[in-house]
Amino acid sequence: MREGDEVLSKLLKLSKPSLKKTGMLLVLLLLIMTLSSSIAVAAGPLGVSTQYPGISAQPGSSVSFPLTISGTGFVDLEVVSIPSGWTAIIFGAGKKIHQVYVPSDDVAAAELRVQIPSDAKNGSYDIVIEASGSGGRARLPLNIKIDTDASGADKIEVQYPALSGPDTATFSFRGTLYNNSGRERFYSLGAAAPDGWQVAFKPAYQSNQITSLSLEAGKSQDLDISVKPPSGVKAGTYTITAAAASGSEITKVDLTVEIAGTYRMELSTPSGRLNLNTTAGKQGALTLELENTGSADLLGINLSASTPPGWAVTFEPEKVERIKAGEKQQITAFITPDSKAIAGDYIVNIRASAPETSDSADIRVTVQTSTLWGIVGVAIIAGVIYWVVTTFQKYGRR
């Protein structure tokens, strides 16, 4: 008898209960094998998620959502709902993508970048991401709450945003630029300042001026922002806005410079010539020009003069009540030499004095003798000559 026939004979000899139990075991074994095969072949559940699906942001800012995709195989990604006027793009490894591959028993990563319009109103806005693949479909609802006071956007922080000093000072502000986005950013640096003001950016503790820089996500850079006012700027408070622009997003900070008053004046003449021609005993007039070259107004300016003995000097006006910064005022000096002064050059020192500062000018006065004395001298000489002639004639005939 063959071996197979022997096995069959043994099975036939089994009782009916034994056969029934054996059949049930066979069915159960086949069922377990089928389920195991199905589990091994079927793909894992498809899903898309992010750690923080709801955030607050400012109008005009750019926000990012890191995405985690689970499942197996190729998964398509799509933004299926977004507010009007908004822009949302999915990136992977810095490139715009629409599909990811998820290895078995693993996940894939991507990033959703959303650009918010600068005119977006305060409120709540929804965005929906859909993932689809062999494991089905999955949706991820996201929410952005627009708040003009929201944190998390890029920012510039300045340790001391208000400084004061004279108009000759250079003001140095220490600031820090923060990249609070989820990706590396390139920033252009600039400033809005009053006319004539100079603004420069330098990396902290370095001497090289820069106009741009690149920052990795979550990183910051210390900056030295130097502000130089123009020469002679008036005393007052000035605002300079420093900015870092990345694409359409601009981060700003206001810097305040308070120019303390500086007091300077210059005394001269409109033509710059410091001389006067006059006659002994006669009053001569000279126009002076007093200029406020400081950054603060000058008040209560007194005028005085140092002259040779017997001379007199008066001024019109006698006192200058106020000259604003950068302005000029003309003054007339009336100079009268001594009537007995002989012809020649003399120096008259004129001084303008305010409580805070002063200046002076040396005026060269050329004195000429009066024509009357010349006539008198000529008459005396003529009389002497006449007397000599007549005397000679009278006594010469004897």
Envelope shape: rod-shaped
User: What is the CATH T-level topology of the largest domain?
Assistant: Immunoglobulin-like
- Class inferred from helices and paired strands: alpha+beta
Largest sheet: 5 strands, antiparallel
What percentage of the residues does DSSP assign to strands (E)?
over 45%
Which strand order spans the largest sheet, edge to edge or round the barrel? 1-3-8-5-6
> How many domains would you count in the coordinates?
3
CATH architecture of the largest domain: Sandwich
- Tell me the radius of gyration: 49 Å
Whole-number mean pLDDT: 84
For this structure, what is the CATH class of the largest domain?
Mainly Beta
CATH superfamily of the largest domain: Immunoglobulins
Query: Roughly how many Å apart are the termini?
Result: 212 Å
Assembly annotation: single chain
Strand tally is 28
| Low-pLDDT sequence parts | 32-43
Share in helix: 10-25%
Q: How does this structure look, described?
A:
The chain has 398 residues and is α+β, with helices and mostly antiparallel strands. The protein folds into three domains: 47-146, Sandwich (Immunoglobulin-like), CATH 2.60.40; 155-259, Sandwich (Immunoglobulin-like); 265-372, Immunoglobulins (Immunoglobulin-like, Sandwich). Helices cover 16% and strands 50% of the residues. It has three helices and 28 strands. The chain has helices at 3-13, 16-41, 371-396; strands spanning 47-49, 54-57, 62-70, 73-81, 87-92, 95-96, 99-102, 107-115, 123-133, 136-146, 155-158, 162-165, 171-178, 185-192, 198-203, 212-215, 220-228, 236-246, 249-259, 265-268, 275-279, 284-292, 298-306, 312-316, 319-323, 328-336, 344-353, 358-368. It has a five-stranded antiparallel sheet, with no helix packed on it. Strands 2-10-9-4-7 form a five-stranded mixed sheet, with no helix packed on it. Strands 12-19-18-14-16 form a five-stranded mixed sheet, with no helix packed on it. It starts with a helix and ends with a helix. The model is unreliable at 32-43 (pLDDT under 50).
